[in-house]
Amino acid sequence: MGTIRTWKQRLRQQGSDALQATVTTGRASALSQEQRETLKRLLNEGAQVHGFPDVSWTTLRVREVIGRQFNIWHHRDHVRRILHQMGFSRQKPDKRALEQNPDAVATWIQTTVAELKKSSCWCDADLSR
Q: Dmax over Cα atoms in the chain, in whole Å?
């Protein structure tokens, strides 16, 4: 960005084309395209393959994999941006067990919860959730 004097000087020397806005692309990515493709393959292998206790990927876990694999340590917010650029989206894990049987849950609520509500120690508890 320059002063008015600089802009006027450019106009005189180079004409009106010199006043056109320029695009600044910013700093080059620390991860090459080849490294991004490798990262995508690593993530598709699953988190447990890389030593994590469950299947979910977090930005901190992805950061760890990037650091171990490529010796590049990004901030977790930047890892989120990288994942978005690679086509990954944020996923929320389901809060119920995959093995949960909805019919069994409904039966339990109708029988067991009803019995618990009848007992004096559970009168004020909200067990219907």
A: 92
Separation of CA 63 from chain center: 11
Tens digit of each residue's pLDDT (9 = 90 or more) over 51-93 = 999 988 999 999 999 999 999 999 999 999 999 999 998 877 6
3-class DSSP state for residue 36?
Answer: helix
Write down the domain spans for the chain: 33-85
Of 60, 104, 62, which Cα lies nearest the Cα of 83? Answer: 62
The whole-number pLDDT of residue 124 equals 56
The H-or-E segment that residue 63 falls in is: helix 59-70
Q: What is the mean pLDDT of the chain?
A: 85
Residue where the block lists tokens 């901190």: 60
- Contacts of 64 by beta carbon, 8 Å cutoff, 6+ apart: 50
CA–CA distance, 116 with 119 (Å, rounded to integer):
5
